[in-house]
Amino acid sequence: MRFDGRSGSSSLCLRNQLGSSHLEEKRMTDIAVIDPDKDALYERIRLLLFSADLPVQRLEADIDDIGRFTAPDVRSPHLRLVEAMPPLTPAAEAIVRAMIRAYGVELFGRGSANAGLRALIKAGPVKFGQTALMLGPDAPVPERARPLVEAFNRIFERYPESGFAQARCLLSAIGLPVGRDVPRQPSRSLQRD
Hints:
It contains nine helices and no strands. The protein has 193 residues and is mostly helical. Helix 3 crosses helix 5, helix 5 runs antiparallel to helix 8 (146-158) and helix 7 packs across helix 8 (146-158). It folds into three domains: 1-30, no CATH class; 38-162, no CATH class; 163-193, no CATH class.
């Protein structure tokens, strides 16, 4: 018989013997993720990134020298990643932490937050963030996600080595809109000497 804190007289007797604090604790432990701190969520997401049955090369922008985990031997690259648990690049870490700040434990529930986490795991944090920035202002993005996209924009500005800042400058140089924070640079081909 499973004790769930709600059934019949046996639970009343047990509640009297154990006290209400144990009953509350038991209810809470039935939940997969209660309210762990943000670092625990970050580590859980890293583990999911490294162990997902997807090509390890997808994390090339997220882990320095990803090639060290793809060398041939008897262990899989995923196992090597999980054993080493290498740090994410600063941009990738900032993207994961921005997702955690925006959604917290909802990332591990059902719904759009979890769909976002799955997309982040499939693409890798940096590519996920870059894709989010490619969505225009008219894209069907939930209102709650718009500040997250703005956070991604600030992250890529802070970490230009992620390569996205250069792409935005090139787009700007040919006259394409790249966001309100990026100054447009005049195209040289259109300038007269």
